[in-house]
Amino acid sequence: MEAVHDHHAADHDHHQPSGLMRWITTTNHKDIGTMYLWFSFIMFMVGGAMSMVIRAELFEPGLQFISPERYNQMITLHALIMVFGAIMPAFVGFANWMIPLQIGAPDMAFARMNNWSFWILPVAGSMLVGSLLAPGGAAGTGWTLYPPLSVQSGMGMDMAIFGIHLLGMSSIMGSINIITTILNLRAPGMTLMKMPLFSWTWLITAYLLIAVMPVLAGAVTMLLTDRHFGTSFFSAAGGGDPVLFQHIFWFFGHPEVYIIALPAFGVISEVIPAFSRKPIFGYASMVYAIASIAIISFFVWAHHMYVTGIPLTGQLYFMYATMLIAVPTGVKVFNWVATMWRGSLSFETPMLFALGFLFLFTLGGFSGLVLAITAVDVQLQDTYYVVAHFHYVMVAGALFSAYAGAYYWLPKWTGHMYNETLGKWHFWLSLIFFNMTFFVQHFLGLAGMPRRIPDYALQFADFNRISSLGAFGFGLSQLLFLYIVIKTIKGGKKAEANAWGDAPGLEWTVPSPAPHHTFEVPPVIK
Amino acid sequence: MNVTMNTLVKWLSATALGLMLLPGTASAAWQLNLSPPVSHAGFVAYELHNFMTLICLVIFIGVFAVLGYSLYAHRKSKGHKAAGFHENLAVEIAWIAVPFVILVVMAVPATKALLDLRDASEPDITIKATGYQWKWGYDYLKGDGEGVHFMSVLATPRDQIEGKEPKGEHYLLEVDNPVVVPVNKKVRILTTANDVIHSWSMQEFGIKQDAVPGFIRDAAFKAEKEGTYRGQCSELCGKDHGFMPIVVEVVSAEKYAAWVDEQKKKMAAAMGDPNKVWTLDEMKAYGEKVYTTNCVACHQANGKGIPGAFPALDGSKIATGPNADHINRVLNGKTGTAMAAFGNQLSDTDIAAVITYERNSWGNKTGDLIQPAEIKAARK
Known about the structure:
By secondary structure, chain A is an all-alpha fold. Chain A has 17 helices and no strands. The radius of gyration of chain A is 23 Å and the shape is globular. Chain A starts with 6 loop residues before the first helix and ends in a 36-residue tail after the last helix. The radius of gyration of chain B is 28 Å and the shape is elongated.
């Protein structure tokens, strides 16, 4: 292997500490990628445990397990941890591991900053989880942190604000690293329009992050000064406006949806061609679609705010702009289907998760289109229909895509094949329980059940019970994934360099597991 | 164009209804669609939702039928060899253009529905709905019933919520004083809030409008069918967000007139005689009622509050210190906290009673008796 020819020599030059210090001081993109992935899985378990508490409370009408204020803290932390602690770091983990391998770079451009952007995360995560112990508990405002409610809250809110600042810094540093790596460290001949789609989605996502994380930081800083330093950005009594916060928040919040979704699209665009044994259909239009989605995502934020009292013209504009997103999203779905069309399909676990993604993300897209229609959204805003919609996008979308990516690249990371039978079990259990949990929530929302309530009227009892049972099943099924991963790390069938036989991409030209240093001599791209 | 569009919407909605089970025929517990609307805006939204869902369903089935065929026919296990194609300009342009046209078809009725929904002009009756943590206050500002105002609080007993007694039919969707409006009259709801953002919503009328403190928003409906309609606060507003329902009774014009008369009499009686002198026991007994309605959610029945979130009254400095501080706190609230200014919510008698109750309950044994006249004086 030309690419790893001198890796023993290289190891001699690097005096690496062993044990814990190896992980604390590492500047290796693979080590850091691994830490991101483990961190995100731990946070996924923590956020998941919170959702189990939520679903247990909602299992039947009445208050059983936790008080309403604790319930509000649970939904807040569940969302913040899942969005910032689980899903985003998972895809940054993929980026760290795979971007250098995909573009033929030896490592990330700023290796030490890479270490720093990871190690901020556990601090931020502890800040969020630890706020549960603050006097008055954690923030109970929902992850949207709307004032004046967030101005009323106790110091748990300050901890959340501080945690968000740290997470934002980590994301911005990570993004600078990704952009610089992709723009400067591509192997000779790897032009941008030859770059794998996963790397493309991350290039665009990184720009989105740099654009909107400071906006969120600004919003929560204004909250902080409203809370403690007598400013009135969000208080009418001092000349401010509570709705101003919502504009700033969603100016961050809507691109945030695509910060999560685009890398997910990237993973799917790698997995589907590999298991269709056919190149991705419409590569160029895929790139343009990603870029269009990213750009439009800046101009649609107030569709989250149809009922706040924005003017009629505003409602019309945001409705049309939002509907427009369906066009590039449609292009992506059609291209994926066309990639499979007349391919030579096989259905290993990564492909199953990719298909699950395609099917359910499309459903989530359609419910999004329904919600874009203002007059309909007025009926569904802040109901369980919205909860169902964004879990189709976030869980069946982002999480399923992360699983597709994890199973796809596990052989490259560990050098072993995972157990295919168990992987398939994991997929089918997740698919069934996911739908059991969230499909019925569409009906709850249509019947008018508001979100973020710890107790509900009797007519909502049956669907809630189904949903809770589904959630418990879904939660348990995810432990199977942990078992599969540990088993794969410990042993299993030896993986070939190209674990899937004929999967495309530079990452499959290096041995499995990928050696500590790869592409110290740039590969040659035809 | 407009006529064909309407026909198309109606035809498609009818089909969608067939597919989705009419909510009227399904039992309420398994409701699969929006509640049957009783206002024009609600009806338009209802049809539009069916129309949208149906189109989405058709596209979904179309796309996944193609995919399904591919998953069946183009398998490696069946020996299918992969074709090599990876682009086709005509096809790629088509699947930008076709969805765009479909979106335009959706946007036409969507625009029309929104224009209908936002029309709050020339109302017969104007009602201001004020969100409080955690109840609604209503002021009839204009039209028949002008001057009527009252608070509307959850009527479900605490024991039902905590599972100590069986839950009633309208569990969590019942209030002590429902909003009453006449049938077939256009009602404009002005929303605002006293503390944090709340949201006033009624699905059958097709409206939901955030209530933002310091600002006034509006929404309008004309209910076309008599009956009792139930909604809930739809913006997270703190601890008891799930416990501040909205109930609207739509009644005939005669019944409405009778209700207005009754309300006016009740209001006059509730004002009480501010000059009446009460005994300590009378005041305490009445004060307990006021406390249960207005204070118990935060400060709790035992006066211990919720540590870290809501302060205890039992043994507190305010409730055992000078009367004037206590009166000031209840009248004017405390900025930046959930403690509301009750001066504009409660009568002099109510406030005098609740303060008396707080100063002479649990471990608090001040023996202070506050008279309505003192509150009246303190308001100035």
